Amino acid sequence: MENNKKEKLDLLFREMSNCNRCCNLVKRNGKDCSLIPIYQELDFYKNIPSIWTDWYQRVDSDMMIIGQDWGPYEEMKKLHDAYLVERTPENWDRLIEKEKSLTKKMLTKYLVESSKNTQYEMTESDMKHIYITNAIMCARSGNHYRGDNIMLKESTIRCAPFLKRQIEIVKPKVILTLGYYPLLALSYIFGFEIESNLTKTIEKNPEIKLKNYRIIPLYHPTAQIKKEQQLSQYRRIWNI
Question: What CATH number has the domain bearing residue 42?
Answer without folding.
Answer: 3.40.470.10
